[in-house]
Amino acid sequence: MTASSDTIEPVNPSPQPPADAFTASHPPGVVELVCGCMFSGKTTALLHALRQESADNILILKHDKDDRYSRSKIMTHDGDGFDAVTVSCAQDILDRVCHETKVVVIDEGHFYDEALPQVCKTLADQGKRVMVAALDLDMWGFQFSVIEQIRELAGVVRVQRSICAACGKPATHTHRKTPIIQNQIVGGSEDFEPRCRDCWSPPREAHIDSNEMG
Ligand SMILES: [Zn+2]
After folding, report:
1. Which of 35, 73, 190, 213 is deepest in the core (most CB within 10 A)?
2. How many A from CA of 172 to the centre of ligand 1?
3. Domains (ranges, CATH) in the chain?
4. What's the gap in Å between 196 CA and the centre of ligand 1?
5. pLDDT class for 32, splitting at 50, 70, 90?
């Protein structure tokens, strides 16, 4: 494990993946986290890094809560994608990884249960490169505790910014545009947009203590 945290923030305001940090090749035995609001290019950065990775034993995981674009691929909002194995909890990840797996890719890490930080640490301690992409804040502006814990143990942390849909400044928050009906909070661009802190406001609905947000 890499002991120190290499925090890089803020990154460029555009959602394009830069050519350093998360996208560079890293030694095995490290957890790398890319986080930020929706539409900040997290999955794009992940896919870009994957294309640079020379290891052939790569396991890409997708939570079964995330069925917005495809059930069997991790996809960017632009439609770019990689085939993935679907799991329903953090423990499933350990069951899917084998001795030969060198790189473990976890998209939408905020969908997972509280065991995910320990799973990431276990895999890194086994010498695997663990790459996680996740939201850092929910639509009410609260941190996902699972992601905060991964941030603590990650050797590399990259914070992505999008562009505020209201004013054009760097966006750090995810703004809900539509009412929440029957606690269904997963959605796409029809429901959410990136906003800066000044333009963002939380939903009128009471906070739903759930990680079911993409
Ligand atoms: Zn703004």
Report:
1. 35
2. 9
3. 6-161 (3.40.50.300)
4. 4
5. very high
